[in-house]
Amino acid sequence: MAVAGLVGMVILAVVLVIVGVKRFDRPAAVPESFAPPGNLPTATALGADTLAFDSDRTGNFEIFAASIDGDVSAPKQLTDDPSLDSWWPRISPDRRTILFYQAPAGVHDVDATKVSLWAMGSDGRGLVQLRPAGLDGWTLQGHAEWHPDGTSLVMLGGSRLNPQVFVTDPLGQRPQQLTDRGGRNIDPAFSADGKRVWFVGCPKSICSDADQEIYSIELNPSGDGPASEPVRHTDDDVRDNDPYESPDGSMLGWLSQMETGGIGVWDVRVADIGDGGRFTSKPRRVVNDSAVTSRPQWSADGTSIVTHRLEPGRDGFDLVRIDVATGEIEPLGFNSSANDEYPSL
């Protein structure tokens, strides 16, 4: 009886764990009224010197656009809904459309189960929802990025415990799973030639933050599936995020947490890359200080990156441009007392 009772308790415990996981990983209900749009909204192309970013200068997070070369323009607000946080703008390759995420005000980027993917014209008009929370049975979603020719998107999606990388059409529909690995598979972005996807993964299914490493996977000729197994490029005890390839395909830049404790010390690291994306130099830090420097967005000529940065002792993130060779930092001059972040060039 004692053995039978013990077995029964074990079975009950397993059942409770399974039920708990299922509840924890339950996707949101997709509104019955949702229908994907037939086309992306477009407007006059943004100038090459214009970036999009999000800011909480109005109270909640909204999307703004501003010129950053020559006479720095006052940011133009593109979204306006105090009940929502709008963030993560991504300018399309033709610069006529902007992707972004929305979540209830106050959620911002801290809960990927509550976000939905949207698109608008580059002037802020024609707002359409591409992916509501819960679509395709995904519990979470995020990190949407354009293919260099604008014909597809790459993003993370799936379960809380085991998110994967997917390629979709430009409307965020018809997801094709690109990775099938344990642990976290997050932060995807296309290579400069669109033939490879960079992402962050873990070597084992049990994954801590320090286990996050940089991987890449080659795409098949149709660009909607893998042509080979993922390749691991970093191997250290440093948490890595947000890999982005330079426009000429010669370098990779990514975000690394160099020190833990509190908010930590974060920096951009870069490495030269060759055929197949393989590193041809050791990773090096770009700024090498004690601040929080966030994900890199490359300039068209590959000599600088734009990012958001939190200086020691300050309360909010500011947008800066950083020379990749020297680490010299140039504030972009918006002089906001709020958080300006997630720039897209």
UniProtKB/TrEMBL annotation:
Basic and acidic residues: bias regions = 230-242
* Membrane-spanning parts: none
Q: Which Pfam families match?
A: PD40 (PF07676)
Q: Where is this region: Disordered?
A: 217-253
Q: What top-level branch of life does the organism fall under?
A: Bacteria
> Which family is this protein grouped under?
Belongs to the TolB family.
Q: Which PANTHER family match?
A: PROTEIN TOLB, PROTEIN TOLB HOMOLOG
**What is the name listed in the Swiss-Prot or TrEMBL entry for this protein?**
Putative tolB like transporter
Protein source organism: Candidatus Neomicrothrix parvicella RN1
